[in-house]
Amino acid sequence: MLARVANNLFWMGRYIERSEHIARYMHVNYFSSLDAPHEISRSRPFVLNSMLRMAGQPPGQDEEELTEEKVLFKLALDPSNPFSIISNVRYTRENANSARDLISTELYESINKFYHFVLKYPADHYIKKGLYDFSVNIIEMSSILRGRIRSTLLHDEVYAIILLGVNLERANQLIRMIDAKYQDAKEARASYGDTFSKSFEWTTLLKCMESYDMMRRHYKKTPTSLTTLEFLILNPNCPRSLMNCLNQIYMHIRVLDNSFRYNKNSTAFLVGRVRSEYQYKYIEEIEGNIQQFIDGMLRNLADIGTKMENEFFHY
Known about the structure:
The chain is mainly alpha-helical. It has 15 helices and no strands. It is globular and about 55 Å long. The relative contact order is 0.12. The mean pLDDT is 92. It holds the Pfam family Alpha-E. Residues 1-313 form the DUF403 domain. This is Alpha-E domain-containing protein.
């Protein structure tokens, strides 16, 4: 396989996952805010700033310019914004086109359907009353694509490369969501006097990661900062946790590099090192300095992505 084609497959997986996470974060935050128990969590600027922060866009400095219509359009259907959902879906299709002979017809047709749904979605309808329909369809279509990947591709190098992209992006988006909700919880605490550990924002974070029900089943109590972070960061049995993503990345790296020889400059070594650091960590160690953890993990994931591309996809 050409390194260029492998790189296209890797980024196809990343863009699929990125599209879904942006849509899910917008959907959950917007509609959860309608039922939020405190006024600050229901305010539009608070919700819109959270969306922008998670998507890597600097929050608006002037709240008069931070209109709901502008933010929703910018994050979803603005073709000039490289971080928007429509841009990510376009990149997904472009990368799929470049690797057409290595993926199944079923997967390619689903990507095409995904692309045309987003491309033809009427912006006026979306801005006024289409957020629910649009975001739910993005989430469902992304799930269909992952199902096509798992059920129609050979579980070989092609599959491993796509899943490397999916899991690396999932870990990245999880940390970005934790960062955004951590900032939200701090702001909300100052506004309504609730304790940081019992903020409503931790419940929202779990719903953003589709992990609320399983977290309640596991702990059998209302989410707190400690239990939420432990479940989403350290629990390897949660399919969207950081540890699960790192385990998946390591497993798929071994498909591409199965030598198991000592090489401290390899991607497998770096992934194993990061994974080992958190495998036996106590959540209290992380909660004590969440911002340091967030900054450090984002650097680690960026280093893993760069090293992975240099080792396997450089052309």
